[in-house]
Amino acid sequence: MEWLNRMKDALDYMERHMTEPVNMDEIAKTACSSPFHFQRMFNMLTGVTIAEYIRKRRLTLAAQELAMTPVRVLDVALKYGYDSPEAFAKAFRKAHGITPSAAREPGNSLKAFPRLSFHLSLKGDKEMEYRIVQQEGFSVVGKKMETSCREGENLRQIPLFWKKCNEDGTYDKLVEVGGGKDMLGICAEVNHEQETLSYWIAVKSEAPAPEGFSSTVIPAATWAVFSSIGPMPNAIQSVWARIFQEWFPGTGYEHAGGPEFELYPPGDPSGDDYRCEVWIPVMKKS
């Protein structure tokens, strides 16, 4: 499959350039993809960001060199992109649990983060319900948080954010602002290099944001809209996985790089018939 070969080519490129500064444009070019789409695909398929993957691979290779050669710690640190032995030692200890010098001592355990590989898995036996929608920009009012994507931190922090907003009255206030209509969970301002994103719990509204809330504009876009039917959060998590594992590789679209969001209509999110949606900005592959 073409996309599978492209992902393998990108992994080959990263492995060949592991001691050089990360060049995301070239990595994505190898995969015949835009940088944003490739990074989003990689993260969704593997569960790690590209920066995290490269960081772990470098520390794995560095540990091997220290254990098997007499090269100086400073030289290994510089080779794998660290400006000082102190920064290298801190990262090394976090990854391996021991200092770089201790890696040379017989009997000490080291952790290896193996090179990733992608394999073809035959899926698609279950239909995916989606539609393509052209929509003008719209304003939203809500609460915003900043979170790191490193080590899956966003996957832990976003549910806690929803819990807090439900408990402190934020959710009820937004229901009032939005006239009891759909609630949105928006991923915006994704910075793959810094491994951060902004997450909003919001409603559509043209009115000024009440005190304690903020507003922003979701730009006009072509959207791929996917339906999720079933209890939250498992049903929608399954949809997200299928979008990146099956839908994107099998179509002529890629992520357009703008905000993406989940749309939650009124209803019982724990019900077997609860219906919500995933909206992703897309563009035709060049």
Automatic annotation (TrEMBL):
Segments forming domain HTH araC/xylS-type: 8-106
The entry's keywords: DNA-binding, Transcription, Transcription regulation
InterPro entries named among the record's database cross-references: AraC_E-bd, Cass2, Homeodomain-like_sf, HTH_AraC, HTH_AraC-typ_CS, MarA-like, Reg_factor_effector_dom_sf, Tscrpt_reg_AraC-type_HTH
Molecular function per GO: DNA-binding transcription factor activity; sequence-specific DNA binding
Protein's recorded name: AraC family transcriptional regulator
Domain of life: Bacteria
